[in-house]
Write a structure and sequence with these properties.
This protein has helices spanning about 25-40, 60-70, 85-100, 110-120, 140, 190-200, 210-225, 255-260, 265-275, 285-290, 305-320, 325-335, 345-355, 365-370, 385-390, 390-405, 410-425, 435-440, 450-455, 460-470; strands spanning about 10-15, 45-50, 80, 105, 145-150, 155-160, 165-170, 180, 205, 230-235, 235-240, 305. It has about 475 residues and is mostly helical. It has a 3-stranded parallel beta sheet, covered by helices on one side.
Length: about 475
């Protein structure tokens, strides 16, 4: 047990994306896991942009990453760190490794390195530069060269991974890693170690495609006398068919899920459950996720993306969402679809929201199901609808209109009772009334039950539409 005089270090996690494209759903899950772990332990969640690949890193990709994190509600506790800006610090540490004998200068040309590497591979050995045990002369130092990390010879490298368990490598199977390129640019593995150490990162939670990097990075930590962080390498996300996630599986970027009508709280819920479990819990709040999240709950097998389950989770959070917020989101969908909207349409959507949100899995479906509310009068009624409003059926709708005109309580439950009573008095099942009423009130659009349509439209709009429809049949 840690004594009060020697408290455990503050938990610090980080999400370290490369700004070479959009925020991938796998990256979003990694960010979420880091965020949840830090929050559970009252620690700090940091973001570092690993932009050392200057040719592929773009400002647009940086913006896309932060837009995605912002949409998900994953905000760092400090200003983001940009790795490229710390190159001088990385070179300083490389020089420390040179001074302590844990690194050496390699004067091989690229062609010589390639030839020796091929020869070593043919013999089943790791490449080893002849400069590993050679001291450069003053003349040598004026020539272009790289700096390589001197791995320990014939030693076992063991990483106690919080997800994968103990993972072992033979140091002889690892090349002497280049830590400074010939132009003085630091390489990835050196920069990551230095930045994680300087940022005080205690837990490195990332995809298991980085597991081999953990071996090299651990050796650098050990050479510098720095404490290794806790490594936790999480399996990647696969498509529904079990294959590595790709474009053929559908949406990959976080912004695509936003455009498809998913709520951020639903994505957090779903992504947290994608590869991690707390008993059989499927639907849980952010507070519960923070309380429950731990590293042992992460599985070792790749998680499979399941769009049906995501839709189920999203529908749950839509039902719980504030109507005003949903009305604004639905209005945005209508605008994105190019619909010509008026100043009162957001209020009309808000009035309709309680009666449609229980039927929708996405905000796109909310827009589909609220289109009838936004139609200007007189609404267009398709030919089949006009046929329903002719003859005896039309006369019945006229009587319904007259009855509703005397009805003051426009509560949905009162309307349901009134419609039922009307059908009984007419001596018909409601199936003889509903289609014609729907045609008159919505023009035949997708819509909920008639009582909910009436409640969504409101008293004056409902009666007005019924009057308009009956006028078209005269």
């Amino acid at each position: 047990m840690t004594s009060p005089s020697n408290p455990a270090p503050e938990v610090v996690t980080r999400f370290a994306p490369s700004p070479t494209g959009f925020l991938h759903i796998g990256g979003a899950r990694t960010a979420l896991f880091n965020y949840l772990y830090a929050r559970r332990h009252n620690g700090r969640f940091l973001v570092r942009v690993e932009d050392t690949d200057r040719e592929r890193s773009t400002d647009a990709a940086v913006k896309a990453i932060f837009d995605g994190l912002s949409w998900l509600g994953l905000f760092a506790d400090d200003e983001p760190v940009f790795q490229f800006s710390r190159a001088d610090r990385h070179r300083e540490v490389a020089n420390i490794l040179l001074e302590t004998g844990h690194a050496y200068r390699d004067f091989l040309t690229a062609e010589e390195t390639g030839a020796l590497r091929d020869a070593a591979k043919a013999k089943g050995r790791a490449f080893e530069s002849p400069w590993r045990d050679r001291s450069p002369t003053v003349d040598d130092l004026s020539k272009p060269h790289t700096v390589r990390f001197r791995r320990p010879a014939d030693a076992a490298v063991v990483v106690e991974d919080a997800v994968q368990g103990a993972v072992r490598w033979d140091s002889a199977s690892l090349d002497d890693l280049v830590i400074l390129r010939s132009d003085g640019a630091p390489t990835y593995n050196l920069a990551v170690v230095v930045d994680d150490h300087d940022m005080g990162v205690t837990h490195v939670i990332r995809g298991d495609d980085h597991l081999n990097n953990a071996a090299r990075q651990s050796l650098i930590y050990d050479a510098l006398g720095w404490t290794r962080p806790v490594f936790a390498h999480i399996p990647l996300i696969h498509g529904p068919d079990g294959a590595k996630l790709s474009k053929r599986h559908g949406a990959q970027a976080v912004h695509e899920y936003a455009e498809m009508g998913y709520l951020p709280e639903a994505m957090r819920n779903y992504l947290a459950r994608l590869g991690w479990a707390h008993g059989d819990e499927e639907l849980f709040s952010d507070a519960q996720a923070i309380e429950w999240f731990d590293l042992p709950g992460i599985g070792r097998a790749p998680a499979r993306l399941d769009f049906d389950k995501l839709a189920h989770v999203n529908a749950h959070w839509i039902r719980l969402a504030d109507d005003d917020r949903l009305a604004k989101l639905t209005l945005d969908v209508h605008l994105a679809r190019g619909h010509d909207l008026g100043p009162d349409d957001e209020a009309r959507l808000l009035q309709a929201m309680p009666f449609v949100k229980g039927r929708a899995k996405t905000t796109l479906e909310l827009a589909d199901q609220t289109g009838f509310v936004l139609k200007p009068r007189p609404i267009a009624i398709e030919a089949r609808g006009l046929e329903m409003l002719a003859g005896e059926s039309g006369e019945r709708i006229g009587r319904l209109r007259d009855r509703l005109a005397l009805f003051e309580s426009w509560d949905v439950f009162a309307l349901e009772a009134e419609l039922k009573a009307f059908a009984e008095e007419e001596g018909v099942g409601f199936g003889k009334i509903g289609p014609a009423a729907r045609a008159a009130l919505t023009g035949g659009s997708t819509s909920p039950d008639i009582a909910k349509v009436l409640a969504a439209l409101g008293r004056e709009e409902s009666l007005g539409r019924l009057n308009d429809a009956l006028q078209q049949t005269i």
